[in-house]
Write a structure and sequence with these properties.
Distance between the termini: 37 Å
Number of helices: 6
Number of strands: 6
Largest sheet: 6 strands, parallel
Structural class: alpha/beta
Strand order of the largest sheet: 3-2-1-4-5-6
Shape: globular
Strand content: 15-25%
Length: about 190
């Protein structure tokens, strides 16, 4: 299988797994849309990659923002062939009994709703074409509790199940939908 000429959209592409994935896909010949809130960071990465990369700032926790960013990439590079739901956050870390409800909910908005929003934005056209790949980056924390990470563990477990649901619903239509639950990865988020 080749990704030469394919359009790949990566959320959370400003650092870590997202940045590395953008570089690997571009090196393999894909046209890469880098999405993240950090406009400066994704702009620098896209400039380094070259003409086959495009940076679009957006907020994955806002459906209209994410959908608009995806449309901008598609207008430039063509329909999304591969979506990598990678955007994620873990701060603030806090025990349940003292967690700020708004901050806890914000992680759910990014890590779970952001995955749904990405799927919702690309799946109708993928189903119509009978092809497309969606890859969700979950976490080993989706499968086991981590002290003071209830928001992260819950959101990543939800993203893993959401991915399984999407596969069940759209696999027969020709879509490949899968998730990865990596263990500890030496990203900036992990270091922090």
């Amino acid at each position: 299988m080749t990704v030469d000429g394919k359009t790949v959209i990566i959320t959370g592409a400003s650092r870590g797994i997202g940045e590395a994935a953008a570089e690997v896909f571009a090196a393999a010949g894909a046209k890469v849309g880098l999405l993240a809130r950090s406009e400066g960071a994704i702009g620098e990465i896209a400039a380094r990659i070259g003409d086959n990369a495009m940076a679009v700032s957006c907020d994955v926790s806002d459906f209209a923002s994410l959908e608009d960013a995806i449309h901008k990439v598609e207008n430039e590079f063509g329909p999304t062939d591969i979506l990598i739901n990678n955007a994620g956050a873990v701060e603030p870390i806090s025990h349940l009994a003292t967690a700020d409800p708004e901050a806890w909910s914000a992680i759910i908005d990014i890590n779970l709703k952001g995955v749904f929003y990405g799927m919702r934005a690309v799946m109708p056209a993928m189903i119509e074409r009978g092809a497309g790949t969606i890859l969700t980056i979950s976490s080993g924390a989706a499968h086991g509790p981590v002290e003071a990470w209830s928001h992260y563990c819950s959101s990543k477990a939800g993203a893993a199940m959401l991915t399984r649901c999407a596969d069940k619903e759209a696999g027969a239509a020709g879509l490949r939908i899968m998730g990865l639950s990596p263990g500890t990865v030496a990203t900036q988020m992990q270091k922090e």
